[in-house]
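pipeline stage [seq->struct] | target=Acyl carrier protein | organism=Streptococcus henryi | residues=80
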Amino acid sequence: MTKEAIFERISTLIKDQLHKPELTVTTETTLQEDLGVDSIALMEFIISLEDEFGLEIPDEDVEDMTCMGDMLNYLDKRLK
């Protein structure tokens, strides 16, 4: 799976979860500041990512993810 395809999928997931299909999401978009994702919404998003990509994301790895680019890079490495 290409990085572009991964990013497209995670962008769609976060837009669906937030019920905001009009959002513009870039790799620099931060989860908390730009999207207003709280800790509960973040965990729901991580669960969606785990289901979508068929992998488990440990909590300690999530702590290092502050923007969509961090998630993209993490998933790209894990999926290779």
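stage status: PASS
auto-comment: Helices lie at 3-18, 39-53, 59-62, 68-78. The first helix runs from residue 3 to 18.
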